[in-house]
């Protein structure tokens, strides 16, 4: 399992990460179902990592060796459609929506064919 470095808020390592600029940090609350008392962890992880890194981070904070059965199946809240895969991130998504909203746009036909 690759090493995953998790930094807590208020630590020097965490502050150095933020000082680098442009780094989005996410605080995640992870709770195991059907535990009493509730077993949970709060982690802070940098954005932009692939999902497998989050998977490894969760295993790390739970003290697991990646042999436990687990699933990530429940989305409890959200809003708006997410960007299509490989559309160019948030900037590409903005451009994608503008082109798709305008049938007269010169790229509309090609983009529609790519998406649909």
Structural notes for this entry:
This protein is an alpha+beta fold. The protein folds into two domains: 1-79, no CATH class; 81-116, no CATH class. Helices cover 35% and strands 12% of the residues. It contains four helices and two strands; from the N terminus they run H-E-E-H-H-H. It has helices spanning 12-19, 51-62, 89-101, 108-115; strands at residues 25-31, 40-46.
How is the topology of this model organized?
Layout: H1 12-19, E1 25-31, E2 40-46, H2 51-62, H3 89-101, H4 108-115
Antiparallel strand pairs: 1-2
Structural key phrases:
116 residues, alpha+beta, 2 domains, two-stranded antiparallel ribbon, Plasmid pRiA4b Orf3-like domain-containing protein, MM3350-like_sf
Radius of gyration (CA) equals 19 Å
- In what range is the share of β-strand residues? 5-15%
Mean pLDDT score: 76
Q: Helix fraction? A: 25-40%
Please indicate the count of domains. 2
Specify the overall morphology: elongated
SSE pattern, N- to C-terminal: HEEHHH
Amino- and carboxy-terminal Cα gap:
38 Å
Uncertain ranges: 1-5
**Biggest β-sheet strands, sense, barrel:** 2 strands, antiparallel
Q: Briefly note the structural class of the backbone.
A: alpha+beta
Number of DSSP E strands = 2
Biggest sheet strand order reads 1-2
Per DSSP, the total helix count is 4
């Amino acid at each position: 399992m690759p090493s995953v470095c998790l930094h807590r808020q208020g630590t020097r390592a965490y502050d150095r990460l933020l000082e680098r600029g442009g780094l989005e940090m996410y605080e995640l609350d992870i709770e195991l179902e059907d535990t009493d008392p509730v077993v949970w962890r709060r982690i802070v992880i940098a954005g932009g990592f692939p999902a497998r890194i989050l998977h490894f981070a969760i295993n790390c904070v739970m003290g697991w060796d990646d042999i436990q059965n687990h699933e990530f199946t429940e989305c409890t809240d959200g809003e708006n459609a997410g960007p299509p895969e490989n559309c160019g991130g948030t900037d590409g998504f903005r451009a994608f929506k503008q082109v798709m909203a305008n049938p007269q746009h010169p790229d509309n036909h090609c983009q529609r064919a790519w998406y649909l």
